[in-house]
Specification:
It is built from 24 helices and 24 strands. It is an alpha+beta fold. Strands 14, 15, 16, 17, 18, 19 and 20 form a seven-stranded antiparallel β-sheet that branches. A five-stranded mixed β-sheet has the order 2-13-10-3-9. Strands 5-4-7-8 form a four-stranded antiparallel β-sheet. It binds a DNA duplex through β15, β16, α17 and α20.
DNA sequence: TGGCCTCGAGTTCA
DNA sequence: CTCGAGGCCA
């Protein structure tokens, strides 16, 4: 009996410590698997000895039945809102007003990110979480205790240090971006409703009457202030208060900084704005709080907001705009992608005019129609997306029927007129025109010329567009037959098109451009087999597969003669890819083009029998991310490959080392989560130098 | 058969 | 960078 209790206490201490390290110190001490194991152990003990299962046991986070409604909670100290500043001038005014009272050397501000979530008040009595309430109107909020208990990073019990008898902690409940994405991804797969954005996700999750639903949502919390306290004197500055909260086991943002004066707060603002996309959560601005509590009290409040704090807002990540049209694009493989043409709108600093709608399913999911008002969002990644339709603003006729019709996938390719078909089980619709389709031919040539393929300098999309449109280039082998006269003729025709400026550009300039292109084309003749295979654009044969094929077959004829059976024996090649490759080389047309390329002088070193099996890194998988200083990721990858390493594109638990340069993003986070070894660029350089392969 | 782990394809703007 | 889907292993 006693023994069980002791073990239970020890396990509790371990799990509380793990929580603290993970959520407050951001320094995971044990892997997830071990955490789960601990939790299961505790559960097992509590089942055998039910008297051990106290309300603040970590197994009891979801220990409550569905409620009928939320009770009301009066805030003993009102939860106020903050005044907003939208420009540097407004921030300057704010500081000047304070400077009337506070001497300049004491204009110290605690700066913190303003999370886009839901303000919450947590009440601890004798160190135990007894109540949690929403802000509500500031005077009275809703009792969401059972839901708040399900949020793992909120301690049910304060940690060791002496703490006040009553402590009210205020902070923000939010949904991290990653969690939001994973949640929506799963919801989609299960045909459940998705969350519109992380903010709504956080707010909606807390208002669930069934705490089990809340528990299934990826919620998190940062503390940023205290409310009522009793039984202990609190420190004299906001910075110190935050440090105490942290010591009591409450997560506080690691971005909080204390700075002096106007220039410094504005610098903080700009720094955060720059790093905004890289943060794990959405923020809509930063907050400056005068650090000295006694000066705070001196300044007091105006109506409903403190005079000593202000929120400095960022430009919005979401904007409303109108869908002008829904066009479709044809990709290299014939994939038909619908694109929303938008009324240009500035979203967080960039003008957005296009947004992909991916496929018919996505359009159906959004229910978007031409003429709709939509919300466009530019989050974590740079690529904007249509988040949702503002249905109430859809134009309607007198009977209330929508005026604009549903979007329908075209049946014929808009470029070549061939049939468009959608394979069973595929989400993409495809033009069946193949290389008969100009759009696909253009894309095939763009792919052929691209950096990772033949790397033809001077051959951009615009030029390829003209080359194909005027039919100077029908397939990639034609590129090698181009001469300067042809290029100049094409240039003349393209400039004579309506809408272009007058003709007669300086002749020399035109020939310079053509010469550069021809040099680029000539230089590309010397290549490598894997690049050549990749450049052919066989479906499902990308960089990695092309490399494997080049290594396994040594030279092109062997690959061209291989039948499906032979191809299936190649690692990473399964039935589908084998069929694609065999079918590609079976086409007379493709063989002719390859023949043409070889006759034009395209060549590569054959069978450079790389003895890579015995490098110092053989058997290890490397992933590169972020930007490196000494060389590009590709160059670094080649050096590592020369030492026997395999370069992969994404991090998993099989990854041996992640090399992280500057501004590494989600891959670094994932590597940390999976306990994968991380090297800095310096580590890499040291290693290379040690093995005689310096930069 | 299901559940990873990868790779391939598509994508926006300055 | 993210999503979808092909390949591989249990």
């Amino acid at each position: 009996m006693h023994a069980a209790k002791q073990i239970h206490e020890r396990l509790l201490a371990q799990i509380e410590d793990a929580n603290y390290r993970y959520y407050v110190l951001d320094d995971p001490s044990i892997p997830d698997s071990e955490y789960d194991h601990l939790l299961r152990e505790i559960e097992r003990l509590e089942q055998a000895h039910p008297e051990l299962a106290t309300p603040d046991s970590p197994t009891r986070r979801v220990g409550h039945a569905v409620q009928a409604s939320f009770g009301k909670v009066k805030h003993r100290i009102a939860m106020l809102s903050l005044a907003n500043a939208f420009s540097d001038e407004e921030v300057a005014d704010f500081l000047h007003r304070i400077a009337n009272t506070v001497p300049p050397e004491q204009l110290e501000f605690s700066c913190e990110p303003k999370l886009d979530g839901l303000a919450i008040s947590l009440r601890y009595e004798d160190g135990r979480l007894v109540q949690a309430a929403t802000r509500g109107d500031g005077e009275e909020g809703e009792d969401v205790t059972v839901n708040i208990r399900t949020i793992r990073c909120i301690p049910l019990k304060l940690r060791g240090q002496p703490y006040p008898k009553v402590l009210e902690v205020r902070g923000e409940v939010y949904m991290p971006r990653r969690g939001f994405e994973i949640y929506n991804h799963r919801a989609l797969q299960r045909n459940e409703k998705t969350l519109a954005n992380p903010r709504n996700g956080a707010a909606g999750s807390l208002r669930q009457l069934d705490p089990k639903i809340t528990a299934s949502r990826p919620l998190s919390f940062y503390a940023y202030a205290i409310g009522e306290t009793e039984g202990m004197a609190m420190p004299g500055t906001h910075t110190e208060i935050l440090a105490m909260l942290r010591a009591w086991g409450l997560p506080v943002s690691a971005e909080v900084k204390t700075v002096l004066g106007l220039q410094a707060v504005l610098e903080y603002y700009r720094g955060m704005l720059q790093r905004r996309d890289g943060l794990a959560y959405d923020i809509d601005g930063v907050v400056y709080k005068l650090d000295s509590i006694s000066w705070q009290n001196e300044l007091g409040f105006v109506s409903r907001a403190p005079r000593w704090a202000i929120a400095h807002k960022f430009p919005a990540l979401e904007q409303a705009t109108t869908v002008l049209a829904i066009d479709v694009q044809v990709g290299r493989t014939g994939a038909i992608t619908p694109v929303a043409r938008l009324q240009p709108v500035n979203v967080a600093g960039v003008t957005v005019t296009n947004a992909t709608l991916h496929n018919a399913d996505q359009i159906a999911r959004l229910g978007v129609r031409v003429g709709d008002r939509v919300i466009v969002r530019r989050a974590g990644d740079v690529i904007p997306e249509v988040v949702r339709v503002m249905l109430q603003e859809r134009p309607k006729d007198a009977r209330g029927e929508p005026l604009n019709p549903d979007f329908e996938m075209p049946v014929k390719c808009p470029v070549c007129g061939s049939d468009i078909s959608r394979e069973e089980g595929e989400s993409a619709s495809r033009c069946t025109g193949g290389l008969y389709c100009d759009a696909q031919r253009k894309q095939a040539i763009i792919h052929f010329a691209s950096r990772k393929a033949m790397d033809i300098a001077g051959l951009g999309e615009r030029i390829i567009d003209d080359l194909v449109s005027y039919d100077y280039v029908h397939h990639v082998a034609d590129l090698y037959a181009l001469d300067i006269e042809t290029l100049q003729e094409m240039r003349r025709r393209s400039q004579a098109e309506p809408g272009q400026q007058d003709i007669g550009p300086i002749k020399n300039e035109a020939s310079k451009w053509a010469e550069n292109l021809l040099t680029g084309i000539a230089a590309s003749k010397k290549t490598r087999l894997d690049r050549f295979i990749y450049a052919l654009g066989i479906r499902d044969v990308g960089e990695a597969t092309a490399k494997t094929l080049a290594r396994q077959f040594g030279d092109l004829p062997a690959l061209m003669q291989a039948d499906e059976q032979r191809l299936l024996r190649i690692p990473d090649v399964g039935p589908i890819v084998a069929r694609r490759i065999a079918a590609f080389f079976a086409q007379t047309h493709n063989r002719e083009v390859i023949d043409g390329l070889l006759k034009a002088g395209v060549h590569w070193p054959v069978n450079e029998a790389k003895a890579e099996a015995d490098g110092p890194l053989s058997g290890q998988t490397f992933v590169l991310t972020g930007s490196l200083m000494a060389f590009t990721r590709e160059q670094a990858g080649e050096k590592l490959e020369a030492l026997g390493a395999k370069i992969a594109s994404s991090v998993s638990k099989k990854t041996s080392v992640l090399v992280a340069g500057e501004d590494a993003g989600s891959k670094l986070a994932k590597a940390r989560a999976l306990n994968v070894r991380v090297w800095s660029e310096q580590d890499l350089l040291d290693f290379l130098a040690e093995h005689g392969a310096g930069a």
